[in-house]
Amino acid sequence: MDNHIHSYLEPQSADISAKKNAHKLVLSKKDIVFVVLFFLAAFLIVDFVISCGFNLGFTVAFAALFAVLTAYLFNKNVKVSVFSYVCGALSLAGSVTFALYNDLLLNVFMLFLVCALFGIYICGISGVFKNRQGSFKMLLDVLRETFVSPLSNAPQIGRAYGRALSKNKVSKNVLIGIGLSLPVLLVIVPLLVSSDAAFESLVTLVLKKAGAYIAEIVLAVIITPILLFYAVSKKYNADFCSAGRKYAVRGAVQSAVTVSFLSVISLTYLVYLFSQLAYFFSAFSGILPQGYKNTASEYARRGFFEMFFICVINIVMIALANAVTKRVQSKIPAGVKALSAFILGFTVLILITAMQKMKLNVEIYGLSKNRLLVSVFMLMILVVIFFYIVHIFAPKAGYMQLIIILCSVMFIALSFADINGAVAKYNVDLYNSGETDAVDVDYINNLSDRAVPYILELAEADDHMISKKARTIIVQKIREEYAGQFTLPELNDLDTDIVYDPDTDFRSYNYARERACKLLEEYYNALSAVERQKLISQYQFDTGEYYYNEENDIYEYYADNYCEKYSYSDEQDMYVLTQKYNVTECYSDLYYSDSAEDY
Question: Transmembrane residues, as ranges (predicted)?
């Protein structure tokens, strides 16, 4: 009996062991060597990006990470699609924009896009796509391989590296040798410092930055396993028990439900289209509210963002409706296709209307960065709708690749085109041409470093209400925002030039910032002492202890025993002292009495 039980259990135990060993990960020497390269890539990310921001350092660090992962994952036996290579190239191109411009909003969007394109590229060269790359399901593969696979396989990868290091005598010996050298260095280094001034200076410099470097090394040590789990899970994807599977979307909703749902939505949109006839034909004018006037400004403002969100909702709704509807002979029912096409066609009409509203909005209120970005996103939505309609009637036609490439190219091209400079130029040119009598100087100033040339231009505007703002901004940029980039004289020293002294650390380099600083240096140094006085005095008025009376366009200053009034002088093109009062008159109703002392 015991023998029988033993003979029954033994094969079962062997089967379990076989299953475990079947997926035991065995690493190669290449995997061990690349640990060092992954650590270096992680250190570059910390030192170049986290320490120095999203400038040239990000471009260099990303290129290094791109090269390391490509070298590690490239396999000549894996057939890589052109689409994957294009995504990789676009991710590199997108990373270059960080070295050119420094707009926070664009950088956030670009960071997301670069990471997404890079993720597609990595999945492509490692051959881990389980679904057709022309389908939206490829995005599920990218998400799975970016987040799920590295985390789920992390324990197995960690154990594999543990086994590899325990068997590697060379690694053990290297670590022992390094450990033994540390006590000796504690004796030798102080002696070398005492014996040579140059070495002493070098060690002192290193020790000053030791804390920062230690913190960066710690962060790099934390990031390295994340890169390892990500890379190894791609390279050995087929060896893991948790290897990805194809996502098969099987509709569970009856077509009658979907058709009814889409019919109600379509009918609502038909009623909306009918209501629009009131704008174009007098026979339908009774639909409009009593006394309604269809002015250009009203038309431009009202309903734009609502239309934009309706477009997004329609695309998501149609995608979900087609995904969950039960197929008939593996095909989407004709009724669902027809209604989907109608709603998407209506969405195109809504987009065209929204674009027209945006065009009028720009003509009336001027161009802004947000208006330009929304316009580009609307073009992207048109691209998505076009290829999705093609997909509805030709399901086997790949559409996701073209959508990703075209939309990515559009946004990267927009980033290279310097939209902040374009927006500033458009509004300043509009003002200079006389088509508008006002320009928002503060808004232009907020358009990153590329707006500096146009701030300098506005400082010479005929309208002193505009020029005074620009002058204050110029001094603020020189004295505050870019103070670390200049060698500056005392504020009231009007005879000494400023000197642009850029940061020599290439990691912090940014083309737009460098160009702005050079323009400011060139502009300020070309001014005479009198012209510099106009800048400095306006800066002191706006940032000092002066009160600006907007109604009377005067600056007022209150001291302990007197107060002063400064009014704008057309002749001197600046605010000058015109009246001074004693302490009694300052707070009396005799503000403009004959006892005031005129200047």
Answer: 32-50, 56-75, 82-102, 108-129, 173-193, 213-232, 252-271, 304-322, 334-352, 372-393, 399-417
